Amino acid sequence: MSNKVKVLMTIGTMDIGGAELRILNLLEVLTSRTDISVYLYVISGKKGPLSERFRKYTTHVVYGKKGILGLFDFFVNLRLIEPDVVHCNSNLAGGIYSYVAKTIGVKNRICHIRTASDYGTGFFYLLKKRVFLFFMKLGATSVVGVCDGAASFAGAEKKKTLTIYNGIKLSEELADIGGNFGRMVVLGRMHEAKNHAFSIRVLRCLKDISPERDWSIDFYGKEDSKFKKDLIDLASELNVLDSVSFKGVTDDPVKALSLYSVMLLPSVREGLPGVVLEAASCGLPSVCSPLPGCVEIADRVAFVRLAELGDPGLWAKEILDCECDEALNNKKTFEHSGFGLLGHANKILSLWGVDDNDVKEC
User: Fold this and answer.
1) Which one of 188, 200, 264, 299 counts the least CB within 10 Å of its CB?
2) pLDDT tens per residue, the chain (362 residues)?
3) Helix and strand tally (H, E) in the chain?
C-alpha cells in the first residue's frame, strides 16, 4: 500500500459507556499495529471524560454539531479530510452520515449497529427509523452488526451485511468466585433498559431461599439521581437496603468485576453486551436475560448463563449454580471463544481495506 489509509469514524459522545470504551480499545490496538490515520467526529460536539484518551489514538478529533447543521458540518469536514473510509458508530442514524459521505465520493462507507432492538417508541421514533434505514440502504457499502441480532435489526441487504463480534483484551485479573460467594455485581449506567430493579428483587429472593449466605449487590455505572432514589426505595421496601451499594463509575471495569462471585445482566435491550465479555475475561460467571447478543455469547462461553425475566426465583437458581464454577477454568474457556480483541481488530482492518502486509505482528 503506497498511501496511508485515512479513516473518519463517527461517535456519539465522549462519555464512559460500553460502546465508547469498545471503540477506544479497538483504536489502541489498530494504531499500534498499522500506519493508518484515524479522524474522530464527535456528533454531540462536546468533550467528555474520554476526550484525552481518544486524542492519544487519533490523528485529529473534530467536535461536530447535532441536527441539520451537524450534517452540513460533517459534509464540510469530509471535504477537508478526504477520507478513504467512513465508519459510522451512531446506530441507525449512521445511515444519513453514510449517505453524506457517498455524495462526496467516499468509496468505503460502513454503518456499525450496536443494538439488536428498538431504542425508542411512538410515531416519531418509527418515522426517524424509516428515514435512517432508507438512507442506510442508499449510503452504506457495509452494515456491521456487533451480533447477528444487531445485523438483522438493521434490515439491510444480505450481501452487504456482516457480523463482527466486539473483542476484549485477555485480562490478567482472576475473579474471586469462591472467596466470598454471594457478592454480586451489576455494571451499567442507570437506565430503564438495564432493569436494575429486577436485580434487587433477585437479591431478596436469594436471601429467602439461602439465608445462610451473606448476599449483596454492588451497582457500578453512571448514576441518575431519580433512578437511584427509586432503587433505594425498592431496596428499603424489600428490606435489603443494607446489602445494596452504589459504587459509581469505574475506570477499570475488569478489575472491579474480578472482586465478585457472579455478575447479573437483567437488561431488556442490548446489542452484544461488552460487560459480559469483560466479566468472562477474568473468569467471572454471569447470569443474563436471553437477549440475542447474550444468547450468542452463551453459545460460545459455557459459564454465561441465561434466565428469562419475570421470575426472580429462576435467576436465584442460576446464581446458586455458579458456585460450582472455577475462575481459572472459565478464563481458559474464554480465551478460545472467539471474542479476543486482536481477532476483532483484524476483521475491522480487513473491512477498511488495509493489506495484511501493512499490519505489524504483536
Assistant:
1) 299
2) 346 899 999 999 998 888 898 999 999 999 888 889 999 999 999 999 999 999 999 999 999 998 899 999 999 999 999 999 999 998 899 999 999 999 999 999 999 999 888 888 899 999 999 999 999 999 999 999 999 999 999 888 889 999 999 998 888 899 988 777 999 999 999 999 999 999 999 999 999 999 999 999 999 999 999 999 999 999 999 999 999 999 999 989 999 999 999 999 999 999 999 999 999 999 999 999 999 999 999 999 999 999 999 999 999 999 999 998 999 899 988 988 989 998 999 999 999 998 765 555 44
3) 14, 13
Tell me the three cell numbers of residue 209.
431461599
Q: Which helix (H) or strand (E) holds 22?
A: helix 18-33
CA distance 102 to 111: 12
- This prediction has a pTM of 0.87
Residue with grid cell 468485576, as numbered in its chain: 257
Measured CA distances, 216 to 15, 47, 69, 203, 242 (Å)? 28, 36, 48, 7, 8
Helices (H), 108-147: 122-139
Q: Sign of dihedral through CA atoms 293, 299, 304, 307? A: positive
153, 115 in Cβ contact below 8 A?
A: yes
Q: What percent of the chain is helix, strand and coil (3-state, nearest 5)?
A: 45, 15, 35
List, edge to edge, every strand of the sheet that includes 183-187: 244-248, 216-220, 183-187, 262-265, 286-288, 304-306
